[in-house]
């Protein structure tokens, strides 16, 4: 893994740096139920790494260092097909994590991770994570829940790409996003290029289909990432 700045919490840091590390851990669903002393214990085992926009965090085939937690910024997880085509798996923001499969074995990454903007990660080693799972079983239950959720989403995504039309995939994505954000005015969490990769199509097709939806009076586009859903029922019938 490449990095531009690396430091261990156990070194001498000012209070601001310590607070940032603690906040990084506290916003992760795996750990946010722990009390302050338990959080501080976990923070002691993490390292902070920073990456500029566009830098590769890790490559497919590299050995996983452990649990990668996003503190600031965002990064994309993707795979490359045999012809070099990128397939986006997910985009991670503050509080999200990846690398949890290293818990079970000294595994290698099957995908790539790249900083989409200036990125700060907190990284916990496999050994430390295993120790905390034994000490705090509730963390293991939270992680099992996350595994289940990711597996279900991956299966749904694979089924959509294999069986649904592009129009349906885009419409379903918009309606699901509206439900998640609990608002008819939604914000796309990724660029149209990345959305196209995620939905198994092209950026040009994304733009064309959104324009078609707008012409039908179902949505109103308010910039590249802002969309107002005007007729959710019509989208659900696409």
From TrEMBL:
<keyword id="KW-0238">DNA-binding</keyword>
<dbReference type="Pfam" id="PF13545">
    <property type="entry name" value="HTH_Crp_2"/>
</dbReference>
<dbReference type="GO" id="GO:0005829">
    <property type="term" value="C:cytosol"/>
</dbReference>
<feature type="domain" description="HTH crp-type">
    <location>
        <begin position="164"/>
        <end position="233"/>
    </location>
</feature>
<dbReference type="InterPro" id="IPR036390">
    <property type="entry name" value="WH_DNA-bd_sf"/>
</dbReference>
<dbReference type="GO" id="GO:0003700">
    <property type="term" value="F:DNA-binding transcription factor activity"/>
</dbReference>
<keyword id="KW-0804">Transcription</keyword>
<dbReference type="InterPro" id="IPR000595">
    <property type="entry name" value="cNMP-bd_dom"/>
</dbReference>
<dbReference type="InterPro" id="IPR014710">
    <property type="entry name" value="RmlC-like_jellyroll"/>
</dbReference>
<protein>
    <submittedName>
        <fullName>Crp/Fnr family transcriptional regulator</fullName>
    </submittedName>
</protein>
<feature type="domain" description="Cyclic nucleotide-binding">
    <location>
        <begin position="30"/>
        <end position="150"/>
    </location>
</feature>
<keyword id="KW-0010">Activator</keyword>
<dbReference type="InterPro" id="IPR050397">
    <property type="entry name" value="Env_Response_Regulators"/>
</dbReference>
<dbReference type="Pfam" id="PF00027">
    <property type="entry name" value="cNMP_binding"/>
</dbReference>
<dbReference type="InterPro" id="IPR012318">
    <property type="entry name" value="HTH_CRP"/>
</dbReference>
<dbReference type="InterPro" id="IPR018490">
    <property type="entry name" value="cNMP-bd_dom_sf"/>
</dbReference>
<dbReference type="InterPro" id="IPR036388">
    <property type="entry name" value="WH-like_DNA-bd_sf"/>
</dbReference>
<dbReference type="GO" id="GO:0003677">
    <property type="term" value="F:DNA binding"/>
</dbReference>
<keyword id="KW-0805">Transcription regulation</keyword>
<dbReference type="InterPro" id="IPR018335">
    <property type="entry name" value="Tscrpt_reg_HTH_Crp-type_CS"/>
</dbReference>
């Amino acid at each position: 893994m490449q990095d531009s700045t690396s430091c261990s919490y156990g070194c001498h840091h000012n209070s601001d740096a310590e607070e940032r590390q603690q906040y990084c851990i506290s916003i992760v669903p795996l750990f946010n139920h722990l009390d302050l002393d338990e959080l501080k214990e976990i923070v002691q085992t993490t390292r902070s790494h920073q990456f500029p926009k566009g830098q590769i965090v890790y490559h497919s085939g590299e050995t996983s260092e452990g649990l990668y937690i996003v503190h600031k910024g965002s990064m994309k997880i993707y795979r490359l097909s045999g012809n070099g085509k990128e397939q986006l798996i997910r985009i991670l923001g503050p509080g999200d994590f990846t690398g949890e499969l290293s818990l079970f074995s000294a595994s290698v990454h099957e995908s790539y991770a790249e900083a989409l903007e200036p990125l700060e990660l907190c990284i916990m080693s496999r050994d430390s994570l295993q120790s905390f799972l034994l000490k705090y079983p509730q963390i293991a239950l939270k992680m099992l829940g996350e595994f289940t959720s990711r597996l279900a989403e991956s299966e749904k995504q694979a089924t959509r790409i294999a069986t649904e039309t592009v129009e349906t995939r885009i419409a379903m994505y918009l309606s699901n996003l509206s439900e998640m954000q609990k608002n008819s005015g939604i914000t796309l969490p990724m660029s149209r290029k990345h959305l196209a990769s995620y939905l198994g199509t092209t950026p040009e097709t994304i733009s064309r289909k959104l324009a078609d939806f707008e012409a039908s009076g179902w949505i109103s586009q308010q910039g590249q990432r802002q969309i107002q859903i005007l007729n959710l029922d019509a989208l659900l019938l696409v």
